[in-house]
Design goal:
By secondary structure, this protein is an alpha/beta fold. It has two domains: 10-163, Rossmann fold, CATH 3.40.50.300; 175-282, Conserved Hypothetical Protein Ylqf, Chain: A, domain 2 (Orthogonal Bundle). It contains twelve helices and seven strands. A seven-stranded mixed sheet has the order 3-2-1-4-7-6-5, with helices on both faces. Helix 4 (92-103) crosses helix 5 (125-135), helix 6 packs across helix 7 and helix 7 (193-208) crosses helix 8. It is elongated, with a radius of gyration of 20 Å. It starts with 9 loop residues before the first helix and ends in a 13-residue tail after the last helix.
Length: 291
């Protein structure tokens, strides 16, 4: 099968911009989707930020299983990293207040603490930046010596953040990680990958939340009996038909991707620390390096 995603060239430029500007900040805020707190670090975080204090900011917590999010917070804190969940659906002033809670823990010798926001595409950076602009002080553009196109924003009189473009691994070798990124809307799938990703997501949620799946999906019994593929059956059930009356598979796939990425299926987490690191079947899955 072909690569799961097409890799935009601007992402490599974004990594270079980040590397050039790291000296200007005290800490890096890594924004990670709460549903995939491990796979959501699908970039060279170890080489990029090895000499910089980092804080794990778990976004979209309103879409994730809160008990699993707590497990990940505990996991990262045991690794010596500050980790906290944040919802970007709240009022801008509340979001800014959550950021200020982190501020006092940032070590610095400067009069103004400075942080850099990083993360994979569609993890909530834009929502956070917009909240800062509305609930903080102001956006101040580029400072001398800072790469053009990267923007500083004033959160408070003694706290500033630097916005950066989305980054990602150039090559994603682990199919499980790639499928999670597709389901959470972080990458666009190439041909053939969407159906595999949907099927993977359905099976993962069925394993982790069997009761919820049976209660919320009318097609579940038919799908598990293999009378039709799950996608075809759901297309028929929802009236997604072609002009010839056949199941419109593409429309069904688009529907399920939207359900996954926007939380239409409820609050689910696609990975847990125990399952990711303790399940023998998943020993080959973690390819992001030691956390």
């Amino acid at each position: 099968m072909a690569k799961a995603i097409s890799y935009p060239g601007h992402i490599e430029k974004a990594k270079a911009q980040i590397n050039r500007n790291l000296k200007a900040v005290d800490v890096v805020f890594e924004l990670i989707d709460s549903r995939i707190p491990y796979s959501g670090r699908a970039y060279e975080w170890k080489s990029l930020f090895s000499n910089k204090e980092t804080v794990i900011v778990l976004t979209k917590r309103d879409l994730a299983d809160p008990s699993v999010t707590d497990q990940w917070i505990h996991y990262y804190r045991n690794k010596g990293k500050m980790a906290l969940p944040i919802s970007l659906l709240g009022k801008p002033k509340q979001i800014v207040a959550d950021l200020k809670k982190i501020r006092d823990s940032i070590p610095t010798k400067r009069a103004i603490r400075k942080a850099m926001i990083v993360g994979i595409p569609n993890v909530g950076k834009t929502s956070l930046v917009n909240a800062i602009k509305k609930g903080g002080k102001a956006a101040v553009g580029n400072f001398p010596g800072i790469t053009r196109g990267i923007q500083w924003m004033i959160v408070d009189d003694d706290f500033m953040v630097l916005d950066t473009p989305g980054i990602l691994y150039k090559d994603l070798h682990a199919p499980h990680i790639t499928k999670k990124l597709i389901l959470c809307g972080c990458v666009r799938p190439a041909h053939g990958w969407l159906e595999e990703s949907i099927e993977y997501g359905i099976q993962t949620i069925a394993n982790l939340y069997p009761g919820e799946m049976k209660a919320t999906m009318l097609t579940w019994e038919l799908a598990t009996k293999n009378e039709r593929s799950f996608i075809e059956q759901s297309a028929l059930e929802k009236g997604f038909l072609s002009k010839k009356g056949m199941p419109d598979v593409q429309r069904a796939l688009d529907y399920w991707l939207k359900q996954f990425s926007e939380g239409g299926m409820g609050r689910f987490s696609l990975e847990t620390p125990k399952r990711l690191f303790a399940d023998p079947q998943n020993e080959s899955e973690p390819t992001l390096g030691d956390v």
